[in-house]
Structures are given as C-alpha cells and as structure tokens.
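Review form for a predicted model. The reviewer records the input and the model, then writes brief findings.
Reviewer: anonymous (R2)
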Amino acid sequence: MLKKLITSFSLVLLISGCHTPFTHNNVNPNLPQKPYSEWRIGGSYPHYFQSIVFSTMIKTQSNKYKIIDIVARNNQNYETPGQWQTEFGYSNLPVYSDLPEEFYICWSSFADQTFYRTKLVVPLWARQEMATPHHFYSEAYDKNEIGYNDTIIIGFAPGGSVTGWVTGLAHPDATAIEFGKGVTERIPPGSDVCPNPYPNGKITEITPEAKAWLKKHGMPKEWQEKYNNVTMGQYLKLKNPPNF
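Model under review:
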C-alpha cells in the first residue's frame, strides 16, 4: 500500500514538473506578456499626401495570424509635410490578440498613384516596451497613475515610406518611440497579392490644394522613393509569404 502511495505521489510530481516550464495557453514565458486585454493600432499620413490602408495582416509573437483594420488619418503637419508629428492625439482601434511581431500591409498613396505592400517588423525591445508599466502624473485625476505604451502608430507616406512607433498613456506629454521602417514593394494594379479596392481600379488623386503645394515645393526628400526601402517585386519572392 505504501509503495502504491509513493508511486502515485511520484507520478503527480512528474506530471506537475512537466507542465512547470509552460504558461497558460502555451505562451512562451521568455516573451513579453501584455498586462491588458487589448493593444491599439492607428495610422497616419502626411498632410497633402493622403494614403489609404485597405488590407492588413499581423503575425503575433505567439505565431498566429490575424486580419485587422488600420485607419490612416491626416498627420496635420501643415508647414512641414516631410516630417512626422509624433504626439498622436486621436483615437485608435483596439486589437484583441497577442502582441504583434510582423505587419503585412496593403496600401495606396494618392500622390504616387501607386499600390504598395509593406512588411513592418516590431522588434522584441518594442514589444517589451509595450508591456512595461510606467508611472506618470495625471493632471485629470491629480494623482500618480500607471500606464503603458500599448499603442502602435504606423505612418504611410509617398515613396513607399512606412514608419512604426509605439506610444500610449505611459508618457502622455512625450513623443512616440520609433521602432522601425518597413520593407516595401510596388504592387501592379490588379495584382492578386493586394486586391484592388477601387471600383474603377484607379487610385484617387490628391486634392487641388495638395497639387498646388507640390508644384510649389516639390516632393520632400523624405518621401522620395530612392531614399526609402522599396523594391520592385522582390518582396513577393520571399519564401511562403502569408496571403491576405
């Protein structure tokens, strides 16, 4: 009888020991664990140079894929469209998934009249930042609070330029933290890689105001394709790229 009890107890310890290295839902304990139910996503484009995001897939750090929406809004940088305003103040969409590791984005630039597909990687340090609590003083509540940089903002500009930042409540008065540039390729109209969202297949043109500004000042250096990480179809040759 004693031998059976010892054997049973040993078996329980063995089973428990086998499960110790794993966390709930088999999440890798070495990766940052978000302490909130949702993170947020937003998009931006330079004033005069509208862009539209029409298809986005993320690969999470737990190796799962998810389709999400990104709404790109005017960056309000009237005087210097070639620069980003990183104190983003508008609302962003919630995403209920693990922290993102890669973005695959189909979008179009009105100024370029070009379809693009971009891969944007969120490095480990940026995901760790998203899960790190920060103490800050809240003027609204007149007390110290704990917040997180739980929001990703992605900027879309002519020339296939894509930039990612993390921001949030952690530092309400601080600028966002840039974490990387996207790898972008031109997409021919009608390509099945990025479905064409326009009824007549033609990208909307920039406004007369934007055309006048562009004629006077020219395209800012920051948004010229030769200064950005743009390929001509090479990205499609990557091994097993995820489909939308």
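Findings: The two ends are 61 Å apart (CA to CA).
Further findings: The longest strand covers residues 51-60.
Recommendation: see findings above.
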